[in-house]
């Protein structure tokens, strides 16, 4: 009897570059799972076409058609419940989710954030890191909890800040590392190596004291 494929749902709002990285990893077998559905809150999200070209179902639940954030999240939650994914991947999904939705999928929803959390939660992380004189920046994948960008961190990828960096140049290098880090974390979860227990990330049967770091940064 064959084992059912690990089912992944990806939520996007934009171009879908992290979606593409995860799609590529599933296509090559680096991720032992399948993207069952791509969902977007924006009908003009470029990632929708990426998914459709790859033969992955892509759907829009337009937030502009709902009067409140709660009503939107209820509709999104109903759709996700119907899909029954093993993992929900937020890949540039530019909405703050309501507490009921997050709690419904606790331990099944992950996000990538452009900083070395807990530093620089929220927006404009690259500019803030440069302004603060940081020497190192990067990205983090974390489980989603009701508090914004505060969930348990699974893994990180550091990026060195150069003396002549601008927010744009730093963003480019951080995004390149996102495309390595995110598929790696999804692969670990799909393989059963990473899970969440009592708000603690476990890896290979042990709670982790510090998130592992991927350091294969390519700088140009």
UniProtKB/TrEMBL annotation:
(6R)-10-formyltetrahydrofolate binds at residues 69, 94-97, 111. Its EC number is 2.1.2.2. The keyword Transferase applies. It catalyses: N(1)-(5-phospho-beta-D-ribosyl)glycinamide + (6R)-10-formyltetrahydrofolate = N(2)-formyl-N(1)-(5-phospho-beta-D-ribosyl)glycinamide + (6S)-5,6,7,8-tetrahydrofolate + H(+). GO terms for biological process: 'de novo' IMP biosynthetic process. The active site is at residue 113. N(1)-(5-phospho-beta-D-ribosyl)glycinamide binds at residues 16-18. One of its GO terms (molecular function) is phosphoribosylglycinamide formyltransferase activity. InterPro entries: Formyl_transf_N (IPR002376), Formyl_transf_N_sf (IPR036477), GART (IPR004607). The record marks 149 as: Raises pKa of active site His. It is an enzyme of class 2 (transferase). It holds the Pfam family Formyl_trans_N. Keywords: Purine biosynthesis, Transferase. One of its GO terms (cellular component) is cytosol. Residues 7-186 form the Formyl transferase N-terminal domain. Coiled coil: none annotated. It comes from the Bacteria. SUPFAM superfamilies: Formyltransferase. Pathway: Purine metabolism; IMP biosynthesis via de novo pathway; N(2)-formyl-N(1)-(5-phospho-D-ribosyl)glycinamide from N(1)-(5-phospho-D-ribosyl)glycinamide (10-formyl THF route): step 1/1. Catalyzes the transfer of a formyl group from 10-formyltetrahydrofolate to 5-phospho-ribosyl-glycinamide (GAR), producing 5-phospho-ribosyl-N-formylglycinamide (FGAR) and tetrahydrofolate. Belongs to the GART family. This is Phosphoribosylglycinamide formyltransferase. It comes from Spiribacter salinus M19-40. The lineage of its organism: Bacteria, Pseudomonadati, Pseudomonadota, Gammaproteobacteria, Chromatiales.
